[in-house]
Amino acid sequence: MFHSEIIERFKDTPTPFFYYNLDLLKESLKIVNEESSKYGYHVHYALKANSNIEILETIEAYGLGADCVSGNEVTRAISCGFPSEKIAFAGVGKSDEEINIGLENDIFCFNCESIPELIVIDELAQKKNKIANIALRINPNVEANTHYYITTGLEENKFGINRWELEEVLEILKTLKNINLIGLHFHIGSQITDLNDFKGLCLRVNEIQEWFYDHQIIVDHINVGGGLGINYENPEEEPIPDFKSYFKLFHDLLDLRPQQELHFELGRSIVGQCGTLISKALYIKKGIKTNFAIIDAGMTELIRPALYQAYHKVENLTSLAKEEERYDVVGPICESSDCFGKALTLPKTSRGDLLAIHSCGAYGEVMASQYNLRKLPKAIY
Ligand SMILES: *Cc1c(COP(=O)(O)O)cnc(C)c1O
Hints:
The structure is a single chain. The chain contains 11 helices and 16 strands. It is α/β, with parallel strands linked by helices. The protein folds into 2 domains: about 5-15 and about 275-380, Lyase, Ornithine Decarboxylase, Chain A, domain 1 (Beta Barrel), CATH 2.40.37.10; about 25-270, Alanine racemase (TIM Barrel), CATH 3.20.20.10. The strands form 2 sheets. Strands 1, 10, 11, 12, 13, 14, 15 and 16 form an 8-stranded mixed β-sheet that branches. Helix 5 (about 95-105) links the parallel strand 4 (about 85-90) and strand 5. Helix 5 (about 95-105) crosses helix 6 (about 115-125). The model has no long low-confidence stretch (mean pLDDT about 95).
């Protein structure tokens, strides 16, 4: 269905482009809402996964909040209709200008990642005569079984405040008059497919909450970040991640105090499967072991394979050939890492065939660059 529809509709559209399936996005959002509302949880969409206006407006219409990691993302979220009281602002290196954007818009919460940042937010809030709501992003030192580059919850990572610093943080917070501690925030990494990693997070959060409790602190909000993974190997088998088990796990394992509200920041799991990168085969070139299928999309459109050896399923949409061959599917960029997959088995591929690179809705188009002075890719919905 997908194939003939795409080919018919886009045979004259210049490639490469991102094709977004908004029906799948809506279906995913519906399930996110159904499963999270069973427990009264709040879900913020992590804009950094995909910040296209159409996508953001669709997500906003389902009532989600926003999780931003730059001042421009805060501005974009607001312009797409996300209420500022549902915007969380995270990031290890917020500039003064970005903090001011958050303050001016009275956002829900700054997720603070260091003592110096707390001091700067307090100073800037004081200048504006405001009280900034903050959550402490605590490094839970929990392992996530994902790629090294997208693991964020270990003490060796740059993210968050480590546990041995917490005494000092509490002392300093007493002196900061323009800051209001409302929450604790955690985020252990991305593309996590083993729910046991989240179990580890829950148990650690329970311990950390005990520590705060011993210090006579109960915050109103607990935020466990995002990171739920998607099925890149077989996207058609699992177009929507198992949100039901995910939210239930937190319900079963996390000890919330009465009145405490639980927040999530999901990016990839919401948008990942709704995007496909459509590209055209330019040349088929004979190699030593396999052939090269040189296509017109490269790391400039999708950098994940080059950046963290990510796998994306590649499919030839055009070829009806029974005969299969092995190809290294590569882009045109002058880098050897500009490769979507080695020795992939595809039906015999010819110049002009359309290829689909699946599961590109998250961290695809947002990371596109103009390296080699290439055009930025277009999006079609
Ligand atoms: C990137 C990020 C997220 C979203 O991660 P996904 O893996 O896309 O769900 C959530 N919270 C923070 C703080 C992040 O940096």
